[in-house]
Specification:
Layout lengths: L2 H7 L27 H12 L7 H15 L26 H14 L11 E3 L3 E2 L4 H13 L4 E6 L2 E7 L7 E5 L9 H9 L19 H17 L11 E5 L7 H9 L2 E6 L2 H9 L5 E3 L2 H13 L4 E6 L2 H10 L6 E2 L20 H10 L1 H24 L3 E2 L6 H8 L16 H9 L6 E7 L4 H20 L6 H13 L10 E7 L1 H17 L6 E5 L7 E2 L17 H13 L3 E6 L9 E9 L3 H24 L3 H13 L13 H6 L4
Parallel strand pairs: 3-5, 5-16, 6-7, 6-10, 7-9, 8-9, 10-11
Antiparallel strand pairs: 1-2, 3-4, 12-13, 12-14, 14-17, 15-17, 16-17
Helix pairs in contact: 2-3, 7-8, 11-13, 12-13, 13-14, 16-17, 16-18, 18-20, 19-20, 20-21
């Protein structure tokens, strides 16, 4: 069968031959064995319900083997024979182009050039899944290929629940991932229910079909780094020769070295997985690889002396680098860590003293012992970071639960009050007050034609809009606009595209809507050859309630609430989103965050123009309103400015309280 026929077929009519995993690809770590005998039976029973009874005997034995070998049933036998990547939208069978756009994005998330563990359907973060198994993928693609614009597909933690009668203005797909009853949302609960095949960890853009490869996090990291250096008093060319030390080259964290090159510093990034480091080097996201610490030290000293802008990857543990640089008195200007510490005991963090292979074995075969290694490693890493910060290093938590897990391990990372961390999250110090509170966040788009010329045209249109906005913008947002003008101007030269023809920049609601309207008009006139998909990272102004990251600069006591994320996903769905998603977990871990996303297809119609204006306006301003109510002065400025422009917008503003009044109260 050809590609279209295979998509339309769904679960094959005849049982395909058993398949072996591709040894060349990077595979997910083996998950812990957490199920008892009866629960294993239930897991297999759950998996078999996708298939006819005649296949059950053969598949039951095979699925038991997967469960016992890998800790999860992936159904490798049902992996498609065709290559998975974002094809031009015209190559997908469909009855509505909006569904074809979603198929394109799903395949982009699973493209081996992008996905961290493609055969396990994991896009990034060690366990950020698009689907739990290959049967779910096959059925979902079949549903999308046959649905009309009078139907909506429900996705239940990877499981395609079915097509429901709907209408043309409703979302075509509604995605939920990991939405647990709160008392059953611990990491241990995840391991159990994921092994049973009834829930999954969708990360942020993995399970919502909006990942665009590492470009998305390159931009966020570049903006963060730029402003981190500014906080240290380094601007422009002064950054050359200054060290940014961090860890992680797999999945999203692979963007750090590329971002460092764009900012113009020396980036030193440690990665324990040789395949991940080599992959990033081959993709051009890392300049040089080192396997020996002595060689790395010599190269770093040379780069410092010559004030170079270069990215250096060390295939080894970052704890060794922190400690060695401390011993050698190598000055680190900026420090962070982007390993997946939301998942510390199942492949997200590799402790010092164990090589990659041994660590993978231990986390599955001796999880209690592995936990001890992780916690001891975190304490060593924190101690060394403390030594560096005493010498002047600016260290920030990258919202990956690094400081949270360090604190749980007993490391010295707490502030004197015993409540806060001694180091800020990057949202607290940088992105919150400088970007999110003003409404700036990661707006992204994908040219469904797959045509480079279309992407070039969208780049030019976006740049023109940003330049127009900057001419009349208040001083408070001039820097944000200029940083993003610089970004979009250099985007093509920086070779950021991996997979779909996609782009990202930080824009506020006004900028997003004006850029989108230009795109929609260009599609209408034929200047753009195919529809454009709009989306955003969940890591944005609104849509995500995450007390240790996105909402960490909310100080009114509400940062542990999740109303905003729920408001966003509901509000976006009836204002025109093509698909919406809501997840438990993402970035900082299962049970630690609720986050939502959307996709919106621009097809050149008047309906698309109306949808984008309504939905993008709400998607951003709902978050600014919440931030303003928390008394964030930048957000209050932004929402008052928006109310002055938009007559129908009426937001409740806080009355500010004199701190002296509170101090004078006799409170026991």
């Amino acid at each position: 069968m050809d590609f279209k026929a295979q998509l339309l077929a769904g679960i094959p009519a005849t049982l395909p031959a058993k398949k072996n995993r591709n040894p060349v690809l990077n595979h997910a770590p083996v998950r812990r064995a957490v199920l008892n005998t009866e629960e294993k039976k239930l897991s297999i029973k759950n998996a078999l319900r996708y298939f006819p009874e005649a296949w059950h005997l053969e598949l039951a034995r095979e699925f038991l083997g997967e469960l016992e070998s890998y800790g999860h049933i992936y159904m490798y036998r049902f992996m498609p024979d065709y290559a998975i990547y974002a094809r031009p939208i015209s190559e997908y069978p469909c009855r509505t182009l909006h569904a074809a756009a979603i198929m394109l994005m799903i395949q982009n998330n699973l493209d081996p050039a992008i996905a961290q563990h493609p055969e396990e359907l994991i896009t990034y973060g060690g366990n950020g899944s698009v689907f739990q198994n290959w049967a779910q993928y096959l059925l979902t693609m079949q549903y999308l290929a046959t649905m009309t614009d009078q139907q909506t597909l429900n996705i239940y933690s990877g499981h395609p629940q079915g097509l429901f009668p709907s209408n043309a203005t409703a979302p075509r797909v509604v995605v939920t991932n990991g939405m647990m009853i709160p008392n059953y949302s611990s990491p241990e609960d995840f391991e159990k229910f994921n092994a049973l095949g009834v829930t999954q960890y969708g990360q942020m853009t993995a399970g919502s079909y909006m990942y665009i490869g590492p470009q998305g996090i390159v931009h966020g990291t570049a903006i963060t780094l730029m402003n981190a250096f500014r906080k240290q008093g380094f601007f422009g060319k002064e950054v050359a020769g200054k060290i940014f030390l961090t860890a992680g080259l797999g999945g999203m964290s692979g963007a750090q070295t590329k971002a460092g090159n764009i900012v113009g510093c020396i980036t030193v990034c440690a990665e324990v997985n040789p395949k991940a480091a080599i992959k990033r080097h081959q993709q051009g996201w890392v300049d040089e690889l080192f396997e020996h610490l002595d060689e790395l030290v010599k190269r770093v000293l040379l780069a410092q002396n010559e004030k170079q802008a270069v990215s250096l990857a060390y295939i080894g543990n970052v704890v060794d680098v922190w400690e060695r640089f401390d011993q050698e008195n190598i000055e680190v200007a900026i420090g962070s860590d982007q390993t997946s510490l939301h998942n510390p005991y199942a492949g997200g963090y590799y402790p010092v003293g164990l090589n990659f292979t041994k660590a993978n074995e231990m986390m599955a075969e001796a999880p209690d012992q592995f936990r001890v290694y992780v916690q001891e490693s975190l304490k060593r890493q924190a101690n060394s970071i403390n030594n560096h910060t005493a010498k002047g290093t600016y260290f920030f938590d990258y919202g990956n639960a690094f400081l949270l897990e360090c604190s749980r391990a007993g490391a010295d990372v707490m502030a004197p009050n015993g409540i806060d961390f001694r180091y800020p999250s990057y949202v607290e110090d940088i992105l919150g007050p400088l970007c999110f509170d003003y409404g700036f966040g990661p707006f992204r788009w994908v040219c469904t034609s797959g045509n480079e010329k279309d992407l070039d045209l969208t780049d030019r249109m976006a740049q023109e809009v940003m330049e127009e906005l900057k001419r009349n913008a208040p001083e408070e947002i001039q820097q944000q606009l200029q940083d993003n003008i610089n970004w979009i101007t250099a985007a093509k030269a920086n070779r950021l595209v991996v997979g779909s023809k996609a782009r990202i920049l930080y824009a506020d609601a006004e900028g997003r809507a004006k850029i989108a309207l230009r795109f929609n008009e260009a599609i209408k006139t034929g200047n753009l050859s195919a529809p454009v998909i709009l989306g955003r990272d969940h890591h944005d102004v609104s849509g995500t309630d995450s007390p240790f990251r996105e909402t960490s600069n909310i100080y009114d006591g509400s940062r542990f609430t999740a109303d905003m994320a729920i408001h966003n996903v509901i509000g976006d769905s009836f204002r025109g989103a093509t698909w919406v998603s809501i997840h438990n977990g993402g970035g900082v871990g299962w049970g630690e965050v609720i986050n939502g996303g959307f996709g919106l297809v621009l097809d050149g119609t008047e309906q698309a123009a109306e949808k984008l204006q309504n939905m993008l306006f709400y998607d951003v301003n709902n978050g600014i309103a919440r931030r303003s109510w928390a008394r964030n002065k930048e957000a209050r400025f932004a929402i008052e400015r928006e109310m002055a422009r938009t007559a129908d917008l009426k937001i409740t503003l806080p009355n500010l309280v004199d701190e002296e009044l509170l101090n004078d109260l006799e409170i026991n």
